[in-house]
């Protein structure tokens, strides 16, 4: 495994994913029942971004987050979670954002395969005690059994590196297996957007196999003329909590305007899963 999130932390896709995750966590915390958060691909949990990284390169998105005069409200919780430091900032990863939101009876299971990132993550989550478990394990495999042994509600983030050919297949299978165990679980799936067909194939695969309501947000920085580039990213929300759709539109619209090129934008589509009326459910193509 070559991918290390430290080389990409704080890019536009992190801002989009993390703003959405916080909105989902906050919406679900409105219900008093205990919540299990499963982060299947957790990373190192916190990333030190130097001033140089903030000035140029992918992490300059964080500089915008901290300084933009027109920052929409959807980013405020994420902005508050970034810690200024001498010579840069500490940018929070998804498991840390989830841990920061844990209430007394909530739990976090954060899976990571890399021993080095897993050790960093364990240190970052130590202050949250036994409520936040770091497991050096395959997140796809751990998900269904974690849901099976939990009684309350569940929020899942599936955020693979997509460096392996089978990540799309394993993602769809993990969603399917998770929903079989817990049909009402909220599941957020992050994907890169390089070409339209790869993204659409994942949507078609989900539409064919799941019945829960699902929403796909496609954030394009530019049209996908070059499929070797990261032309944007997708976020698919199964059983999305109230307010998430509006948040995705607000976050994606701002990122596309601030960091995108001509042809950038955000598109939100409800998938044609069975509960939305089968094949007629998808309102329009992406
Ligand atoms: C995109 S990064 C995660 C970033 C993190 N979710 C965040 O937003 O801060 C993907 C991580 O998944 C790890 N990984 C890859 N395959 C995995 C698997 N099958 N199970 C668990 N972790 C995996 C990688 O080592 C990498 O740290």
Give me the CATH fold name: Rossmann fold
Q: Which runs of at least 5 residues are low in confidence (pLDDT < 50)?
A: none
Q: Structural class of the secondary elements?
A: alpha/beta
Kindly report the name of the CATH homologous superfamily: Vaccinia Virus protein VP39
Proper CATH architecture: 3-Layer(aba) Sandwich
Note the gap between the termini: 32 Å
Q: Let me know the largest β-sheet.
A: 8 strands, mixed
Give a list of the ligands. Answer: S-adenosylmethionine
Number of helices in the DSSP assignment: 10
- Give a count of the beta strands, DSSP E runs of length 2 or more: 11
The helix-strand sequence is HEEHHHEEHEHEHEHEHEEHE
Tally of discrete structural domains: 1
**Highest CATH level, the class:** Alpha Beta
Helix content: 25-40%
What distinguishing features does this structure have?
286 residues; alpha/beta; Rossmann fold; 8-stranded mixed sheet; 3-stranded antiparallel sheet; 11 strands; globular; binds S-adenosylmethionine
Describe the 3D structure.
This protein has a single domain (5-276), classed as Vaccinia Virus protein VP39 (Rossmann fold), CATH 3.40.50.150. An eight-stranded mixed beta sheet has the order 6-5-1-7-8-10-9-11, sandwiched between helices. By secondary structure, the protein is an alpha/beta fold. The two termini are 32 Å apart. It is built from ten helices and eleven strands. Bound molecules: S-adenosylmethionine. S-adenosylmethionine is lined by residues 1, 3, 5, 17, 39-43, 93-94, 111-114, 117, 138-140, 159-161.
